[in-house]
């Protein structure tokens, strides 16, 4: 039996969930305040580095001490995959459209409103809550364990050396919640320099001093990225801030009965791991939808 599904949220988690549900033959509507192409701090997906977990690559290794810049105590490197989100998110939306998903703009005040937003004009028997950080204040959810993990980045046109497509190192940093990384996006998407991981910080504007620290650390660590010219050798495309949907205790992936007609499948709280976890969690959503649908049919 085909379900009438409304997915709330159009980030990578909501889009991937919608796609896999549509592939299973369900009628799917996506409702989102933000859509691919938008840039807003609370819409984290476009800002993400979107790299893949390194443990799946054979050439993952720790850096030797003589490979580290002064002041850095450890590091690791690998040749991985870094998604160009400016290409991937529209592609994912296109795949959804190809499989019959309908998109609507909407800013819901309560998760219950989603029941009546299916493009089919009937009550949705499944709501997928993929609102990320929005789950903190969304009526009917109001998850107090959610908080922003503020990430500030600098996107540059410079490409790192071939032996430095992505590198992260830990060190005694100048500011709380700051880290060092560079990720080269595919297909000419520039290189992301980071960054911050500042839980509870709601400042949506890039901080100039933080940006200077980010750039200085990168050119100290890898002078060749700027042609040996320091910060002056970096060709900046943009500065950006995104709020990762951090959740104390980890992500939430579970079903909840709303009423006799409708179930909610929660899929949020992925923090900085949304792209890595998107397909696995979307498969979990499909399994939960099948589970509650079977239970409902068994009671009829």
UniProtKB/TrEMBL annotation:
It comes from the Eukaryota. D-dopa binds at residues 181, 244, 272. Pfam families: DAO (PF01266). The keyword Phosphoprotein does not apply. InterPro entries: D-amino_acid_oxidase_CS, DAO, FAD-dep_OxRdtase. GO terms for molecular function: D-amino-acid oxidase activity; FAD binding. GO terms for biological process: D-amino acid catabolic process. This is FAD dependent oxidoreductase. It comes from Colletotrichum asianum.
